[in-house]
Amino acid sequence: MDYFFIIDFLQSLVDGLLFGTTYALIGIGFTLIFGVMRKLNLAYGAAALAGTYIGVAASLAFDAPPPLVFLLSALGSGVIGILVYYCCFRFTPTHYPMASLLASVGMLLFIDEVVIHASHGMPFPYPSVFRDATIELGDVWIRGDLLFVFGICVVAMAVLFWLLYRTPLGLATRAVSQQPRAAALCGIDPTRVNLLTFGIAGILGGIAGAMTAAAVGVISPIIAMGLTVKGLIAVVIGGLGSIPGAIIGGLLVGAAENVFLLLRGVTERDIYVMLLLFLFLTLRPGGLFGSSAGRD
Amino acid sequence: MKLKSLLAAGLLGVSTLALATAAAAQDKTIRIVGFGASSGVVGIFGQNSSAAMQAAFEKINEAGGVTLADGSQAKIVTEYYDDRCNAEEGISVLRRIASTDALVAIGPTCSNVAEPLFGILQAKVDDGGDTGLQFPVFTDVAIKGGLAGISEWVFRNTPSEATMYDSLFAWIRQTHPELKTIYGGVEEDFAHSRFTWYEVMKKAAEANGFEVVGEAQWLLSDTNFSNQARGMRRAEPNVVAISAHPFTTCGMLREMARQKIEPEVLVGLTSSSSLETISGCAAEAQGLTIPTSFAPVNQEAIEAAEAVVAKGGQMDLHSASAWENAFILRDVINAAGIEGTAESLEEDRRKIRDALAQLTEAPGLLGQNKRMPDGEAVKPYVFVHAKDKGWEVLHEPSS
Q1: Any CB–CB contact under 8 A between A246 and chain B?
Q2: What is the chain B residue with the closest CA to A16?
Q3: CB B223 to CB A261 under 8 A?
Q4: What is the pTM of this model?
Q5: CDD domains, from UniProt (chain A) (predicted)?
């Protein structure tokens, strides 16, 4: 094992873990919605991307500074998340889970097409911060912009935890997640909780979309499918419904794809990541942190 | 009184007949249909082609349209079908077009659509054992080399990348004799990018004395290029060639800038000489050199580009081909004795095919295009480079 290989391995691991936080955020969004409604929102990645484009529009129209662009991306995605809730989940029959799942697939394609139509499929520059900053630890470089992405994602997760475990809204969300009927009997309005959950998950998705675009420096509709797939893999590995699981899953997916890229090349990289997904689905379907606890 | 009435009725009848004939002549139309990706992530190519076709046919119609076999004039009507850069949809779209009164189709956008789609056409004309579709297709965008050979009903007006890159690397060798090494970057999952690096750029570079010191691969939707750029940084190449579409070209260029990779010459894929690259990463693309068969270097090209912009598109090497195809087809229709009736449709399509096959030269925006016996074209080209948020002509090989 030569020196360059060790350096490359460490570098791939560091880059993957830092970038994996965006997958973790997407995973948290999926898991948050699933935890509360027991339903998958497959339009989530597309909504995150659409929100990111709202930030781009502000950037192009008003030459908005990066923090404002990021904020608008996150808020825009939150609003789109709420729209997705109303269109795909609020009025679909609860006893037929396929209805909302398929509605969200339709919404994914719809949002994707609207974004492509509005942007003509063209890549647009997205503001980055600390783009040229690099921390050099010997021959391993830590990108300043990825460190920023990592930091923002960690802050977003911390805020989410505070929201879930330190506020009445979080209490209500957890109550609906665990026992929706009992929560309703206690006076909690499940519709309002669902709505807020979609909004919060949307904001997290918008942050993930913004940070992905900031890390590349360019945004294109191409990234929507990647975000959706990677986010889903992260939650399957971490355990659907578990927030710590989504975080660990996201970091693992980020690290795995970079390490497999180094070891097996780009054409085989995704095969191994998918193999990881397959192994978890067959050997540990609940994921790393999946809860076996039921609900009514 | 009776005679007067008869005369009046006769005059009325004759005038009505004359008016009807004139109206019928005025109403004659020839349908030429475009198809390609006008939605999806490469939708901009189809949108530009569609705009170029509309602008060109509008100009042709303003000048009187086309002349049919009986000497009458007909207007060209056109529409654009979307195949979403999907092979199955492309085949379905072409079958649908062939079932209408369309005389000929211009398209498709994507090489991965063109290759299987050309396979459903009759391979050899007059081959009774081949039940393939007998419908002429005149390709504007799908650029992967050699595809016209699949069927004798296919003609292409796409530039020869092999010729252009060979010329480009020869020019780089001549102007920078001190440069020795090249590193390639390729978008591995896109037919055009992959073909152009492995079969065109790499071979042209080696043929002109450059040593390939490494290759980096990535996928169309990748967002992280640090691994690939690291290999490039270590190889310290003199020349870097990136065979990728604008989104990943921009991603890779940014990563190269971050890792301070500064090759003396940066070469890009033909399809990247577009507004997309400039809009995505003008600063990082500065100096990116690309051979292209379109640049607004003469009055005709400038006016064509303006007409396409007025239709909501952009003129680049691909949409320029759509524009040229429209005018080539006008000349072919004028010369081929097209009848333009429902009864003569099959015969008219065959006449278009035969006339296109007989062409040895055709007018283009940068000069005369050579028409080759295999249905391909050899087009004039220039080298452009990204400069100050635009594309500027760097060198004209013919000058």
Answers
A1: no
A2: B224
A3: no
A4: 0.80
A5: TM_PBP1_LivH_like
Minimal C-alpha gap between A236 and chain B (Å)? 22
B161-292 is classed in which CATH architecture? 3-Layer(aba) Sandwich (3.40)
Q: Does B76 touch chain A (CB under 8 A)?
A: no
Domain extents in chain B: 26-159+297-380, 161-292
Cα–Cα distance, B11 to B8 (Å, whole number): 5
DSSP A87: I
Structural domain B26-159+297-380, CATH architecture: 3-Layer(aba) Sandwich (3.40)
- Render the burial of A3-13: b for 16+ CB within 10 Å, e for the rest: eeeeebbebbb
What local confidence, expressed as pLDDT, does residue B266 receive? 97
Nearest by Cα to B391 from B288, B302, B303, B309: B288
Choose the mutation target among A122, A146, A225 for the interface with B, i.e. most B CBs under 10 Å: A122
Contact map slice: B 236-265 vs A, CB within 8 A? 246-247, 250-251, 254, 258-259
- The CB density around residue B62, as the number of other CB atoms within 10 Å, is 9
Q: Do domains B26-159+297-380 and B161-292 have the same CATH topology?
A: yes
A55 close to A69: Cβ distance less than 8 angstroms: yes
State whether A11 and B220 contact (CB < 8 Å): no
Q: pLDDT value at position B53? A: 97
> Tens digit of pLDDT for each residue in B272-306?
888 888 888 888 999 999 999 998 888 999 999 99
pLDDT by residue (tens digit) across B347-376? 999 999 999 999 999 999 999 999 999 999
ipTM of the complex: 0.79
Distance CA A175, CA A189 (A): 11
- Chain B nearest-CA residue for A146: B224
User: What is the predicted pLDDT for the residue at B212?
Assistant: 97
The answer to whether A136 faces chain B, any CB pair under 8 Å, is: no
Could you tell me if A257 and A271 are in contact, meaning their C-beta atoms sit under 8 angstroms apart?
no
Alpha carbons within 13 A on the beta-carbon side of A197: 32
CA-to-CA separations, B319 to A104, B95, B310, B326, B362, in angstroms, rounded:
36, 23, 14, 11, 17
Average pLDDT, chain A: 88
CA distance B238 to B266: 9
A143 and B234 within 8 Å at the Cβ level: the answer is no
Q: Which of B228, B230, B284 to mutate to test the interface with A (most CBs of A within 10 A)?
A: B230
Instruction: Give the span between the Cα atoms of A122 and B197, in whole angstroms.
Output: 23
Query: Which of A132, A218, A257 to mutate to test binding with chain B, by most B CBs within 10 Å of its CB?
Result: A218
In angstroms, what CA-CA distances link B95 with A171, B89, B98, B118, B153?
A: 59, 10, 5, 11, 14
Q: Locate tokens 């952009």: which residue? A: B314
Domain map (residue ranges) of chain A: 20-225
What tokens appear for B278 in the block?
A: 């400039």
d(CA B148, CA B137): 10
Would you say B134 and B120 are in contact if contact means Cβ atoms under 8 Å apart?
no
- Token duo for residue B389: 């948020």
pLDDT at position A176 over 90? no
| B389 in reach of chain A (CB within 8 A) | no
A123: nearest CB among B40, B226, B280: B280
The answer to whether B220 faces chain A, any CB pair under 8 Å, is yes
From the list A11, A122, A270, the residue facing B230 with the nearest CB is A11
Q: Where are the beta strands (DSSP E) in B337-376?
A: 361-364, 367-371
Q: How many CB atoms lie within 10 A of CB B370?
A: 15
- The residues, any chain, with a CB within 8 Å of residue B276's CB and separated by 6 or more, are A122, A123, B44, B245, B246, B247
**Coil vs helix vs strand at B150:** helix
Whether residue A162 has pLDDT greater than 50: yes
Which is more confidently placed, A2 or B118? B118
